[in-house]
Design brief:
Length: 81
């Protein structure tokens, strides 16, 4: 069975931050530099792939990707229901 999209997001973050063992769902990913300006575009592309949605960079609200909880709500909510 494949990992959930949210678990795949978490795995992507952990792969790039080997010093971490976990990413709490309410941890601010930007403030804690788990998503920085260098990885931002790649991260948004990952979200597009996993959610099946096109994400417009110009209109993307940073709060939508600030935590794993926010990501689940904004990009994977339909799958949770």
């Amino acid at each position: 069975m494949a990992d959930s999209p949210l678990q795949q997001v978490k795995d992507w973050i952990l792969k790039r931050h080997s010093d971490r063992e976990d990413v709490p769902r309410d941890l601010d990913l930007i403030e804690n530099r788990l998503i920085d300006s260098l990885s931002f575009v790649e991260f948004v592309f990952l979200l597009e792939q996993l959610s099946g949605q096109t994400i417009e960079m110009e209109t993307l609200e940073v709060d939508a990707i600030r935590t794993l909880d926010a990501i689940e709500t904004h990009f994977f909510c339909a799958e949770v229901k």
